[in-house]
């Protein structure tokens, strides 16, 4: 499969229109120094092994491979050369170059992360492509709680706030995998349970507690399901705040079944190393979709192999593309290129060995790269 | 490894004699329409993603690749062309062509699935190869219960019926993975436990309850173990009736240990995505065997990669071949071809890089394709 | 990546200096017969499938591939030819040849396994490379208990004995995965808990009970953490004494977090089939390292594929090399060659497809092959 140069936007009909169905803002003021840049290349909050740097990973190598040419440097140039050039060009120019080179037709931006980040309209401007907002449920809940409702009022306020947020968003996102884990009671909480949980949480909040109560987290999921928007769920690996076994998407099985009658479509994000299990859920439940998000950049030269595993059971109408880029614009380009090159090589192989017809490969590339997301989110503008 | 054309049955000595150690009947009257055909290509009971069809999966593509030529069509021809030709030829001719092309020397048929399916003798006739019966334990139990025994008599009747069924069968099969999950108490239930469970189940049956009681399911397994026949267990993925984490074959560890002194040989079917864990069990327990059954067809162009993973720890005398074909004769040919082409390419690679001697590759191909099954089931006729 | 012939020790600067960071003694008197040899090729304590031998596995084939040439035989020669030549040369000569051919610069030897095995000094002599001792915590505990302390004294004695053992060792090793499983309470036991557990164990010991009490096992881990030496933990597959799901390194997550403030560095050994999860832990926790040990030899022709998976998330400064050789000197050579050939081919591929720069590949090979271990264990002599 030969993906055309995604920086060439003149001939849309002939190249995959990539829809980045889950990404975040990048820093308005680029990383302040090498250590800061390195810290944005890892899911760890700790220093690298002595004698090495956070560039010594598949992601670090992938940044040097894919991003250096966009800054007029040879691929795989040393980290210090790359960072010097980055400083020379300045953050706005670097951001613009890397986002343009990513070749995205549309961005769906989760705005729930902290930091002085570009907002969707600014990302859209840098990328030259429209951006839509994904609303993070737990952030909505924190905002509602900040308004000081009592425990009796809180559950209803959450539902109202989520319905309100739905009007300006294309999807919801939940990080319940971080806050509690994915092993949740499948049913919607009763009103009494919700009130009791609200009371507990409001009391904890006075001591600084973030929202980790599974009853309230389930309230958020069920309220989101009621809006008709797709619901994205973090699954699989992330930073050290996560207990990885609690983020196995198969833990969602009962909730997936419980939500099926509501019509709510669920998008399992990232999934690694549980992407085969996610593929199974996407295969047997009509409302389940999956992507590899964070996984592709972080596995770098191995992204093709991981994509191949995701393409074992996941129906071709159910796999989505995203970069999960955050903080560094590099993560947009790396996410895009590991996807297009990885999928392209994979499909080429299958065509070459006559497993797939060329037209099938082209159609599947278009579905995964953007068609599935356009259909799922009802996108009409990119 | 070059597997000879399996449709050429004139020269048995020179080609792998495939023993399909786990398969099912195919529809006597072919699928009534395109949607029906599609529903037999998926483990889901729901429609495909909008704008796609159930052909848009590795299995769907594999059917077009491997089956179209057997119906005189070019490989990878479009679904509608394929289905039109299928209607033109008629179900009996399609069935005969596809089963013959699968190149099977023997079929071991699990007859416990519903539907108007060809019985083993009819499959044998279509395939041109002998067929033997595998008896599904849960089906035996339902038949016994239909005869109206009281709770005190039921456990003994189950044991008798299983012993009786053993006389005409080559193996037993259990779907306890569906009915309860594989996390079972390892020991045989006491007589009192069995009676109590029988009472509960007979009461539930009046309200339509199928057999899900873990005590009775364990009675079935222990009764089967007493017959000396191999016992096949569904493990790994299946349809949406399954909770996949409950089907991890490693959950069987304690039961595997408890059954070891009985001499009962256990066959772990399908296994995906837990096939590496299944390989470990086959490596350390002398009475455990594994196959990939359902997995090979459903992963299509990726079958070779999955086979490679199964061949990491599984001893070469312990891996078995099956198609798990059901409903569509296509699944016989796809199961056979994904296996022979996948294994053939894998062994070729290892020989080419000098990891394996050519004679070793040929011997291992013969063991996995049929030799291991012939030894395990005591087959003498094909 | 082209690893130079590791038997050529004349030019150290140009080849990876392999540090085998986890291995064991080999039999002083070679295996007595073919069956005995075979039993040392498997993690099972049972006979192979009828009609096959324990050579019929990836490890068996890898022995024939890699070891036959070191005994002047063609690669992949038949098992009986190999074993005849082995007898002809005699155990000492075979041991010397195979250990030399493994091209090890340093050996870190876990001396806690039973049998009439070469001690580290003898292994060093055979390998022509220095050997250092790894002390197995559970063996220390048994020795302490043999001295007859009462329950009140035992916990303190364990701590003292571990501190004493640390003086002559480069690392500790725990087999808590076998004795209890890795799902442990994360905190150090209180003195009262430890005394109570000591009393229970000392009573059990009179009836022959080995140390399986989780409280005492945690005492050992925390005492080892206090010494400042790295702590190696068996994770992943092993022999049939293990329940594999209990050896998933992700079960250690809470303990990993609890130990982080102590500065104790943790080394996850073997890891298969949970090596991707181990890579995640190594990526997000600064004190976690991983190796594939036992895995590479046992997966033989598939070692490259497994290494590739481990290199998805594991930072390049965190992956280590070991053979986990035990009993047979063949396991040293097989472990070494599957690693160097597997990693070499993998890195060659990434360089060839321009994912990695050649200098990066060379540097990463040197880190994984030995540099990471030298830094971690403070090695200065090989």
Automatic annotation (TrEMBL), chains A, B, C:
Domain of life: Bacteria
Domain Amidohydrolase-related per the UniProt entry, residue ranges: 180-379
Keywords: Hydrolase
TM region(s), chain numbering: none
One example GO MF annotation: hydrolase activity
Protein name: Amidohydrolase
Natural source organism: Streptomyces hainanensis
């Amino acid at each position: 499969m030969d993906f055309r140069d995604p920086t060439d936007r003149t001939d849309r009909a002939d190249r995959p229109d990539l829809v980045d169905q889950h990404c975040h803002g990048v820093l308005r003021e680029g990383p302040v120094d090498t250590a800061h840049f390195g810290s944005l290349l890892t899911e760890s909050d700790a220093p690298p092994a002595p004698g090495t740097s956070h560039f010594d990973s598949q992601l670090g190598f992938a940044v040097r491979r894919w991003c250096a040419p966009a800054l007029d440097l040879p691929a795989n140039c040393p980290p210090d050369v790359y960072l010097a050039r980055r400083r020379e060009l300045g953050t706005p120019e670097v951001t613009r170059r890397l986002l343009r080179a990513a070749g995205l037709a549309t961005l769906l931006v989760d705005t729930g992360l902290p930091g002085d980040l570009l907002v969707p309209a600014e990302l859209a401007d840098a990328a030259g492509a429209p951006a839509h907002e994904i609303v993070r449920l737990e952030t909505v809940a924190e905002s509602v709680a900040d308004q000081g409702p009592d425990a009796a009022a809180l559950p209803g306020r959450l539902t109202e706030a989520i319905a309100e947020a739905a009007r300006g968003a294309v999807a919801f996102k939940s990080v319940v995998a971080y806050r509690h884990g994915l092993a949740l009671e499948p049913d919607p909480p009763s009103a009494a349970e919700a009130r009791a949980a609200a009371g507990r949480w409001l009391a904890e909040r006075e001591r600084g507690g973030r929202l980790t109560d599974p009853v309230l987290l389930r309230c958020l999921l069920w309220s989101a399901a009621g809006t008709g928007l797709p619901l994205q769920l973090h699954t699989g690996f992330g930073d050290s705040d996560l207990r990885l076994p609690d983020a196995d998407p198969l833990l969602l099985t009962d909730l997936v079944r419980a939500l099926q009658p509501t019509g709510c479509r669920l998008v399992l994000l990232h999934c690694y190393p549980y992407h085969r299990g996610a593929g199974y859920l996407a295969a047997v439940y009509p409302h389940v979709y999956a992507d590899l998000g964070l996984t592709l950049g972080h596995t770098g030269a191995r992204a093709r192999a991981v994509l191949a595993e995701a393409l074992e059971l996941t129906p071709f109408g159910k796999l989505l593309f995203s970069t999960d880029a955050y903080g560094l614009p590099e993560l947009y380009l790396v996410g895009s290129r590991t996807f297009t090159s990885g999928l392209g090589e994979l499909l080429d192989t299958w065509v070459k060995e006559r497993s797939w017809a060329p037209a099938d490969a082209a159609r599947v590339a278009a579905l995964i790269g953007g068609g599935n997301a356009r259909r799922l989110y009802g996108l009409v503008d990119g």
